[in-house]
Amino acid sequence: MEIGFIFKDGEKGKRIVGGADSKYSCENLDWLNFSQKNVMIRTKKGCIYLKVKKIDIFPSIAGALNIGLTLYDSEKFDLLNIGDKVYKCE
Questions:
Q1: Is the dihedral of CA 51, 55, 59, 64 positive or negative?
Q2: CA nearest neighbour of 88 among 24, 30, 37, 39
Q3: pLDDT by residue (tens digit) across 34-72?
């Protein structure tokens, strides 16, 4: 997914939100089972690995899926920018 929003809310944690690629199923969400695992985020300066604390899923106006990832605190979070690409680590 591509990061569309970045939230730094002390109460709710550090979160990123983006839309799911249309190739992924909206009915069977098993592919979103990566809580407590790392994601790789490709930034302009290189790749960053961050651990996912929580995954939130909500529909977009267009009927696609938006994915919200709450990440564990890390100084690396401040290196993220809108437009960076997020990949699930296998």
A1: positive
A2: 39
A3: 888 899 999 999 999 999 999 988 887 777 788 899 999
Q: What is the DSSP string of 1-63?
A: -EEEEEEEETTTEEEEEEEPPTTS-SS--GGG--TTSEEEEEETTEEEEEEEEEEEEEE-TTS
Query: In angstroms, rounded to a whole number, what is the distance separating the alpha carbons of residues 88 and 36?
Result: 12
CB 51 within 8 A of CB 85: no
DSSP run (H or E) holding 87: strand 85-88
* 77-89 exposure pattern, b = at least 16 Cβ within 10 A, e = fewer: beebeeebebeee
- What is the per-residue pLDDT for 84? 96
Residue type, 59: P
Which pLDDT value is given to residue 20?
A: 76
